[in-house]
Amino acid sequence: xxxxxxxxxxxxxxxxAPALLATLAALFITPVVIGDAFVxxxxxxxxxxxxxxxxxxxxxxxxxxxxxxxxxFYGIGAYAxxxxxxxxxxxxxxxxxxxxxxxxxxxxxxxxxxRLHGPFFALATIAFLEVFRVLALHFRDLTGGATGLxxxxxxxWEWMVFRERLPSLIIAFGMLLLCLAVAQxxxxxxxxxxxxxxxxxxxxxxxxxxxxxxxRLIAVAISAALASMVGxxxxxxxxxxxxxxxxxxxxxxxxxxxxxxxxIGTVYGPLLGALLLVPLTELARGWLGAEALGLHGFVYxxxxxxxxxxxxxxIMGVLHRYLQKDDEDxxxxxxxxxxxxxVPRAEPEHKMGPEILRVENLDKHFGGLHVTKDVSFNLxxxxxxxxxxxxxxxxxxxxxxxSGFLQPDSGKVTVSDSAGNFSAPVSPADFASIGVGRTFQxxxxxAAMTVEENIMVGAFYRHPDVNDAREAARETAHRMGxxxxxxxxxxxxxxxxxxxxxxxxxMAMEPRILLLDEVMAGINQTDxxxxxxxxxxxxxxxxxxxxxxxxxxAVMSLSDRVIVLNSGEIxxxxxxxxxxxxxxxxxxxxxxxxxxxxx
Amino acid sequence: METxxxxxxxxxxxxxxxxxxxxxxxxxxxxxxxxNFAHGEFLMAGMFLTWxxxxxxxxxxxxxxxVVAPALFVLGGVTQKLxxxxxxxxRDEHIQIFATVGLSTAMINLALLIYGADIANTPxxxxxxxxxxxxxxxLEGQLFIxxxxxxxxxxxxxxxxRSRTGLAIRAVAQNRTAAQLMGINVNWIYVLSFxxxxxxxxxxxxxxxxxxxxxxxxxxxFVLIAFVVVILGGWxxxxxxxxxxMVIGLIDSLSGFYIGADLREAVVFGVFLVILILRPSxxxxxxxxxxxxx
Lengths: 599, 294
Fold this sequence. Notes:
The complex is a heterodimer. Chain A is of the alpha/beta class. Chain A is built from 25 helices and twelve strands.
């Protein structure tokens, strides 16, 4: 699922746009020129499947929630259209009624299911699909039950039903364009970045201020509404609908399959997949007829198996590989920007402001384990607070409570906003919005994104516009010395680079309080010195920092104050020099014997 | 009252059926951590084999087990070796889902190509004869299924807990890397486990075939029920699957009688969704490890 951002970002190959336009034009012009009824049918079907698959991809690809029940929304659209048409309401209106119902159903279904991952989400969507099918069979009065529903014989644009073929193609093609446009719009905007970030690393996305549930619900609603609109039209095109073909599992699988084969998570992959596979089906049906019962399905299944084995990134992935080969020459010619050294710090006696964060009597149990015991401290504006303690002392758990990832059993965390009013945020999103940013001890890059795009996810917090966010991300990257790697995949960075990326992403959110969890662990001496300078320069911009750190060199030279945590309790607090001489601290690190021997 | 008892007995018989088709699924998941979406098609393949064996050779369907179980073992092992193994380290889960979904699609349609849309009736050899216990009636074949399900659960548990191979399998299930360090050939254990899971399906298919007509899409119905059962029983737990199967059998039978035959599926899947969402680790499964944020 790499290279997802290749289209819609400035790195788009020069031939991509013309190739896309040519493909779309051919899709429309070919049947018109040939003029054969069967060819028309094949192309209408391609448009419909490509549109459905593109809509599916918003959820299945961008958001990474593998739905195998998308026929639910298609079916809702189809039934809404036909039922309303039987009541004398035009499908052009019915289409929107269906879309509204589908979006609602999607939100209601997905909200509880988002806690499920991978195969379990897929299973839940299959189960919902079965429930819809059974209900459609049961409520005969509304749906006609197993006998199905016919559309009344009304022709013309008003009713979406035509004797000639061209108008159907125009509508199908229009729907495809609509779906592609929506997908492109989502993908290249803030929502798309948020969706991919959520898919790649949910907790890191939350820390970057993404309301992960909300963005996925939006995606699901949009996807369902689009699928439903296509469903309405397809019902008019088929003229007859019944539960087992509308709410069909194999139909849902097909929609998803086109996206996978074309390139899951890319905007135009689903179109390519449908373009390649639909004609195969329709031709097999047209030429071989009933003899070939099961043939196209068999081919689909085999193609799907071969695709996951040999080209998991789909056709788009293969295309991208060729495209990269072309690009390599250009890139080597590029001059590498010299890493920007941290700006030498002016040495003013920095002043600490008023209290900005209050931690009062935090208690947390994990089962029988008392992880934090009655922890209280505060943080002042512009202060660097070092937090040390042996492994298992509860430092990271404390951080999780200071950023909303864990709720304390008792006690509270209050943060002052920029006006100085204290409030108690609850969720990670609340903490982000009041200006608390955090990094993760185990780095959490968004693997499918470049360095620049990773930082943009943070930058969107202050700059909703893509171009502004990109600008801010670049600036932050240069400040963090990540400038030369802007277009590199985040995965390819060294551990030092990844740690800096963590800091850069959170810095792009322009937090007022920064929680740094072992950003210096495992990096080399030069990097440690640069990181120290970096943190001081961040502090000088007025940001308050709490840093968990094991690198004593950094703790001693950075911290205005140090807190020592052991077994969930604060055992010492104060000036760094004094703290390291404290017998309690020595005992915590080296054991009672050592403390006694030294005394 | 008699009707109620009959409905409950029907539910238990149905439970036996659901149990025997679910054991392989839960076992494969428990060890390899793969949800085999083609599980139902394995059953379908086994049922077609049973049908061929019975009609062509004129033997009792239960005798087919000597052919069907090994055949399914091979099918399972080959699936693991050629399809799942290369994808074990895939970064995205969707790849593994699509792999077995693709296999399922291919198998359904292959059966459709070979046998057409007609149903194949395996000769019943008296297994569809009702036996009467006072007012209660059950089919002979149903009793065999229930008995076989109980034996299979006990047998698999003994194998996994008492034998050396079973110990290795459980070690791999718990921690693949550590098992490898202990000198266990992990890939072979995976092939073996998938094969064994599939062989369980093979056993199920010879028992099911005389009672249910075989068709290319028979697996779809059964696999959905099997998913429900396995979720309810806790993924990977074989005794859990048995209990889950009994619960689902009862729900199916009772709702079919008291709510309406056409809505019983909706009730079953409704229960499934509630369990999946509220308690994803199942009614009897141990609580899954909470994702750790660090």
